[in-house]
């Protein structure tokens, strides 16, 4: 399912997996570029979680 059409919970799970993979690749230490990617992913994850809450209300 493309990210644009994924429900909040599906999208948040996908983003969570990407965040975990980033940390694994980085060995627990993020460089500047990885930190920017992490911040982008966490921001998108938070939006997806909010969307999921909005869908269930």
Keywords:
about 55 residues, mainly alpha, 2 helices
Characterization of the model:
The chain is mainly α and 57 residues long. The chain has one domain (8-56). 77% of the residues lie in helices and 0% in strands. It has helices at residues 8-26, 32-56. Helix 1 (8-26) runs antiparallel to helix 2 (32-56). The radius of gyration is 12 Å and the shape is elongated. The two termini are 23 Å apart.
Task: Please summarize what this structure is.
The chain is an all-alpha fold and 57 residues long. It is built from two helices and no strands.
Report low-confidence residues grouped into runs of 5 or more.
none
Output the helix-strand order.
HH
How can the largest sheet be summarized?
A: none
Assign an overall shape. Answer: elongated
Which structural class do you get from the secondary structure elements? mainly alpha
Number of helices: 2
Distance between the termini: 23 Å
Number of strands: 0
The tally of structural domains comes to 1
Secondary structure elements and pairings:
Layout: H1 8-26, H2 32-56
Helix pairs in contact: 1-2
């Amino acid at each position: 399912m493309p990210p644009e059409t994924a429900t909040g919970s599906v999208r948040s799970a996908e983003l969570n997996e990407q965040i975990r993979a980033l940390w694994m690749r980085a060995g627990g230490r993020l460089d500047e570029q990885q930190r920017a990617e992490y911040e982008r992913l966490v921001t998108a994850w938070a939006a997806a979680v909010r969307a999921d809450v909005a869908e269930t209300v």
